[in-house]
Amino acid sequence: MKTGHFEIVTMLLATMILVDIFQVKAEVLDMADNAFDDEYLKCTDRMEIKYVPQLLKEEKASHQQLDTVWENAKAKWAARKTQIFLPMNFKDNHGIALMAYISEAQEQTPFYHLFSEAVKMAGQSREDY
């Protein structure tokens, strides 16, 4: 079968368009200008055990939307975590938080936008945190 110049050019253009459509678009992620990261240096385990459960409980109690998103993500995480390899000491709350953020980001929900803006503004220093 002999293919002419026009057909080859058409196929190449169609291929380029399809490849471009399905390309993953990269987005640069960095710290917000006024974000604060205390890194929990040398106290991660203590923070996870002593403060995180109560803080999460308080946040969910005062933000109904967070409570709903968290519970939905908890169910998704329970199904997902059995299918993947997890790093040592990976906590369920980390997986639930990731599932919540990813699910909401994919759908571009109001919660996603609210949360993203809050992260940029919250905890600007140890005093504000």
From TrEMBL:
- Where does the source fall among the domains of life? Eukaryota
EC numbers: 2.4.2.31
Q: Which UniProt keywords apply?
A: Glycosyltransferase, NAD, NADP, Nucleotidyltransferase, Signal, Transferase
List the PROSITE patterns hit by this protein, alphabetically.
TR_MART
Catalysed reaction(s) here are:
L-arginyl-[protein] + NAD(+) = N(omega)-(ADP-D-ribosyl)-L-arginyl-[protein] + nicotinamide + H(+)
Please state what class of enzyme this protein is.
Answer: transferase
Q: Which SUPFAM superfamilies match?
A: ADP-ribosylation
> Signal as a keyword?
yes
Q: Which InterPro entries match?
A: ADP-ribosyltransferase_ARG, ART
One molecular function GO term is: NAD+ poly-ADP-ribosyltransferase activity
Q: Which residue stretches, if any, does this entry annotate as coiled coil?
A: none
Q: Which residues form the signal peptide?
A: 1-26
Q: Which family does it belong to?
A: Belongs to the Arg-specific ADP-ribosyltransferase family.
This chain's protein is named NAD(P)(+)--arginine ADP-ribosyltransferase
Question: What species is given as this protein's source?
Answer: Pongo abelii
